[in-house]
C-alpha cells in the first residue's frame, strides 16, 4: 500500500491510497457522503489487486483529507472536478475506471461536466446518486437517508451519533459484523456535521452529462436500497440506454459490502472490458493514421 498527498481544487490536500499492480490498468474508488476510503476494504484486499492498480481517496472534508469547515469548499462543483482530475494527473493513472458510491455519483458527474471522458475508460455507479433537488426527495432519494439527515447535520452530538448509527444500518439489508459496523460508525463520525450539511447545500441535475456519455457504464444497485432508491438507477439507465445494469436482490445501499465476491467479479469483468475497448479503439486510430497520409 502506498500513501499519497494530492493537491486538489483550490490547493486542498487530499489523502489518497493505492494498492495492487502499479503497471496494470487503474480503478479509482470514490466513496459517499460522510464515508472514507476504508469502505472499500473488501475491494483493495481482494484479488482485484492482482490485476489492477487500485486507488481510493478520502474526499475533501472526509477521513484524512483536509477538512475546512467553510461551506464554499464543498458547494462548488468545479472543486470536486479538480480533485478527481488532480488524482488522475498527479498519480499518472492514464484512463482509469471511476467507481462512485452514492454521493460519489455526483462527483463523477462534476468531473465529467468539467473534463469530459478523455481520461476515463469507464464508469461504475454503485448505488449512485446523480440528481439532488426537492423533486428527488422521496422519489429518487429515500427514507434511509431522509429520516436521518437532520440529526446527522445538526450540532447536537447525541443526535449526530443516533443519526449516523441509523444511517449505517440503513446502508445494508443484511446485518454487518460487529467489527464492520463499529468501524463504519467511526469513519462516519470523523466528518464534522457542518461539512455533512455543506455537501447537501447544492442543487444537482446531471441528466445532460449522463445522456452524452460515450464510455462503458455499469450500474450496480441494491433492490432493497432505501437510501438512494432503485428509481435513481432506473432514471440513470433511461438516460444511458447502452449502460449495463446489475441488480442485487436482498441488498440495500452497499452491494460491495454485502456481496463483495459478486461485486468484485463484476467490476473486474467490466474494467477489463473497458480497458480492452480503449486499447482496441487506440489500435483502430493508429491504423487509420497509417492509412491516411498526414493524419496525426
TrEMBL record:
A GO term, aspect molecular function: hydrolase activity
UniProt keyword annotations, A-Z: Hydrolase
One Pfam entry name: Abhydrolase_6
SUPFAM superfamilies per UniProt: alpha/beta-Hydrolases
Record domain AB hydrolase-1: where: 27-264
InterPro entries the UniProt entry points to: AB_hydrolase_1, AB_hydrolase_fold, AB_hydrolase_sf
Coiled-coil intervals, chain numbering: none
Protein name: Pimeloyl-ACP methyl ester carboxylesterase
The species this protein was found in: Rhizobium leucaenae
Source organism phylogeny: Bacteria, Pseudomonadati, Pseudomonadota, Alphaproteobacteria, Hyphomicrobiales
